[in-house]
Amino acid sequence: MSSIINVVNVTKVYKMGEAEVWALKGVSLEVADREFIAIVGPSGSGKSTLLYVIGGLIRPTSGKVYINGVDITTMNDDKLSEFRHENIGFVFQMYHLIPRMTALKNVMLPLKLRGLSGREARRRALEALKLVGLEHRANHRPTQLSGGEQQRVAIARAIVTEPKIILADEPTGNVDRKSALQIMDLFTRLNRELGVTIVMVTHNLELVRYCRKAARLLDGRIVRIYTSSEYRKLAEDMTRGV
Amino acid sequence: MKLVDYFSLAFDGVKERKGRSIGAVIGIVIAVVALALALGIGEAFRAMFYETLRRAFGPDIIYVMPTEHLTESDILIMSSLPNVEHVIPIVGQGVLLKAGTFERSVMVYGIRAEYLKFIMGVEDLEEAIEEGSPDLVGLNILVGEYLSYNYLTKTKLIEIGQQVILQGVDRTTIAVVTGILKASSGPGVAFINTGSSVFMDIDTFFSLFRRDMTYDLAIVKVKDVNRVEETIEIIKAYVPQAEVFSLKFALEQFGIFMNSVQIFLGAVSGIGLFITGLWIFDTMTINVVQRTREIGVMKALGFKKRQIMFLFLAEALVITIIGVAIGAVVVLGLAQVVGIPMFGALIKPKITPFILLLVTLTPIATNIVATLAPAYRAAKLDPVEALRYE
Questions:
Q1: B29 falls in which pLDDT band (50, 70, 90)?
Q2: What is the ipTM of this complex?
Q3: In the listed set B240, B266, B285, which residue is the last one of a domain according to the structure?
């Protein structure tokens, strides 16, 4: 399989007054097309920073990020926004639905940005909601939905533009176990049936079994990439912190 | 993204923050109404005074007002100048009119009988006589309609043939009322309010009130209206001690004055718009802070900086357009009922299309400017920091 994401020797340094904080220290990662990969590691290891660098929300201090062969680190803000809209869907731990909008309107938002007519946007948004099993909750506002439902609406919003890549930052971090498993089933379906590449940040090792690979980050570096047959080893390494 | 979608999103935002939005809308309505009424009243005054000036002047009239003395020889010189049809000298004095128990301070004008018809705006003086005869010789006087009749008590104050006392500063005389002059509406030629004035023969006037035989005003009627400016210059050359001006000059001067008045009124009521702008700035700044995470989400979805900025500008526009629309309706309604009493009439604000356009565009421009800073701040937000904002 060809690589859809190629992170090459990326560093990210935050300046805190005089001090420098190295969030990423020369990270390289290649993600194949249609891959479902987890990024695991303890808090502060740079997981989310890496995810947002891949998504173009954070510019790396050095290094390159290629998405589908295109270097996104040299794009200006507008180009990067366009590229993100066309290629990437984000799912956040806190769902980040817009509270005043119904589930349907939340899902329609990226399509409105694309300039689709109201009717077409509505049709496609309803399809996306159907895919996540929430067609019947289309006219509910986020406050009227459970955490799991809100996250599924957020997933519908992420996939409605049919992106090649979904970047999920702790997508199950704020839902109960049953909802978490539903969300992981949904990701697996999206990956297997629609061929969407998924990069998921998690610290929940139970969810890693849904992924084909797991990249383990420690102190701003990828220390190892584990295949599904090596997940027992991953658990041991995580426990020992090596 | 389509324009309609920006405004749809903006309208949702306005609806979500009903309290602040309604407050901002009310502020805009008040500012629009205050500005429109102030300008409308100014416009109404302008129209009224323009009309008065037109009545007082006429296109073929030149006014000659002495800064020193205007004598009979000046009148004769002006009468002989080219394009001058005739020169009407006028002289006036404030006196106390006593007719039985009735007393009133009035202006008594000395004028030649043949020129009074011109002041009255009639071809034949008989047409201007309500009662009696236009016999203006010796101590005969003509009095205005409003002096002869009390419209409140519906009683006659002065009768034809009645002897009245005219008490000046240093001279008092008895005169006989030979005619009642019809009142014209508002001040007429030479700003003389004929309905409330007294007219007597100019030679009698001089012998009683003005021994030096100087005139207060001369009205020059020209033959060719197209040569008014040229005639003014000639008169100025021959009568340098006088101010010489025509309708055009008066309108220009009055226009300059009214522009200043309207700018002043507009500036004072424009303070309301400034305060509204501050309110919008405050509202939108709070909006940006409260919606920081939403801005982060939008950026993650692919919204560009200028699109984020336009979303907030659209929100300010929606609030402003609602306020301006309500304000315009209120203004048009109030303009029918409110007014300032003046000259016995109610001067109602004159809301012209220009005023409507001004009170529409000014708040829009003000509020867009007020929103620029918070909108720019929203557009510049770092998406990841925005998403993590608590």
A1: very high
A2: 0.91
A3: B240
